[in-house]
From TrEMBL:
It comes from Ligilactobacillus ruminis (strain ATCC 27782 / RF3) (Lactobacillus ruminis). It is found in: Cell membrane. It comes from the Bacteria. GO terms for molecular function: transmembrane transporter activity. This is Arginine/ornithine antiporter.
């Protein structure tokens, strides 16, 4: 259960987060965006925790059903399911891109072949789940370790090599009153923050599912 929650919370967006943020905003706006997203995520977790204490037998769909009736529960379930399979497709495509980084011969593979390969991966994962929760949990534990170990190493390396002068050299995304061409979308701090928020929210996708899984268990 722990590895399932960690895996769904980390997702895959976090591995491309630094690259996407570097294109979206300078360090200053990005830090402000982190503060906003962190506050919002804390409020989400606090709300789910409050709901879980009051309705411990309900899952993420049951909360909507308690408040808005069967229609609310139906819409909540189906929209969450749609977001779930769309997220799985995105994960599979990111996986193919990652494999292409280590196997250059696959970089030129067309979108059709990437889509077919992604479908095969998703069906393989579905096969593991259908075999039983133990097989799926074992694979998930391996995948979670593959996520956590490089992230831990990255944090250690960055802590050792961190240079404050580089971080503050262009804190607000302006060089001679202009934005660096091709790096930040706008000289406006507000627009840089908005672009960063879109990137960061993706990294927290799955947090609510992990919390619901913790409350209801792998039924």
């Amino acid at each position: 259960m722990t590895t399932s929650i960690v895996g769904s919370s980390i997702g895959t967006g976090i591995f491309g987060l630094s690259n996407d943020l570097a294109k979206a905003a300078a360090p200053g706006p990005a830090l402000i965006a982190w503060l906003i997203v962190g506050t919002g995520t804390f409020c989400l977790v606090a709300s789910l925790n409050n709901l879980g204490q009051k309705q411990s037998e309900s899952g993420i769909f049951g909360y909507a059903g308690k408040c808005f009736g069967p229609m609310g529960e139906f819409m909540s379930g189906w929209t969450y399911w749609i977001s779930g399979w769309m997220g799985n497709v995105a994960y599979a495509m990111i996986l193919m891109s990652a494999i292409g980084f280590f196997m250059p011969e696959l970089r030129g593979m067309g979108n059709f072949l990437k889509s077919v390969s992604s479908i095969f991966i998703l069906w393989f994962l579905s096969f593991l789940v259908n075999r039983g929760i133990k097989s799926a949990s074992f694979i998930n534990a391996i995948v979670t370790c593959a996520k956590v170990i490089p992230l831990t190493l990255f944090i250690v390396v960055m802590a050792v090599s961190f240079k404050a002068g580089i971080l503050t050299a262009d804190l607000w995304g302006k060089v001679n009153g202009r934005t660096i061409s091709g790096t930040y979308q706008s000289t406006s701090v507000f627009k840089q923050i908005s672009s960063s928020l879109m990137v960061m929210v993706w990294a927290f996708y799955g947090l609510e599912g992990g919390f619901s899984f913790c409350r209801t268990g792998p039924n």
